[in-house]
Amino acid sequence: MFRRRRNDDMDDDLDDVEIDDDLDDELGDGGPEQPPTPPARPSGPWDVDDAPEDDVPRLDLGSVRVPMRDGMELRIDIDQQTQAAVSVTLATASSVLQIMAFAAPKSAGIWADVRSEIAASLNGSGGSAKEAQGPYGIELEALVPTDQRGQHAPARFIGVDGPRWFLRGMVQGRAAVERNADATLLEAFGQVVVVRGGDAMAVRDALPIVLPKEALEQAAEAQREAAEAERPGLQLPERGPEITETR
Predict the structure, then answer these.
(1) Element (H, E) at 156
(2) What is the pLDDT of residues 112-146, one digit of tens each?
(3) From its phi and psi, is residue 40 left (phi > 0), alpha (psi between -120 and 50) or beta?
């Protein structure tokens, strides 16, 4: 399902932390280029250069190739203002996993710093976060503020550092509070393949998501329908572009 992303989505506050926009070492200092040393990481998520030759069907979205699993729905979130795809969400009947990929330095990972910043942001805005051990290393167990009345939603933040990229996952729903729930959702995170590309990017810039041709055509059709609905005399319901991929 392609859905328009509300400006007040809970992850907005988490992404608006102050960061250093230095380029991720591609520009160099004029000296001889040193081969990158990929940060230590578990078996998956994968870099495109070391991805296994398995039978897992994946949807190619440019910078990420996301597994398509039975009983799991894939959604791509569209920013309302820029109309750009900003994240991928995998959903089961009771849980969701939002996936975002970012540029990172060659020589070091950024998950430790990002984890600290997310925790500080939550603890300073009425939420809470604490570190815990998860299937992909240290993660955050969090309560995220959802409104001005003191309501909170449980969430888990997971992260993996790869060669010149960082992959972040945010789990919500049942799997955020029950670690044995929706195990396939967490397994899917480890089956993501990241395609960093060779372009110089600022550290923590989001890697671009490219929609498949079919999705672009359906989104364009939905926009045409929405435009028709705005014409005088027509009472069609307003909707954004959407498509459902369920295996």
Answers:
(1) strand 152-162
(2) 999 999 999 999 999 999 999 999 999 999 999 98
(3) beta
What's the distance, CA 140 to chain centroid? 16
User: What b/e readout covers 60-72, taking b as 16+ CB neighbours within 10 angstroms?
Assistant: ebebbbbbbbeeb
Cα–Cα–Cα angle for 26, 17, 141, rounded to 5 degrees = 105
**Rg of the chain over CA atoms, in angstroms?**
19
Amino acid identity at 90? L
This prediction's pTM: 0.74
Tokens 């540029």 found at: 103
Which of the residue ranges 11-20, 85-94, 208-217 has the most confident prediction, judged by mean pLDDT? 85-94
How far is residue 54's CA from residue 56's CA, in Å, rounded to a whole number?
6
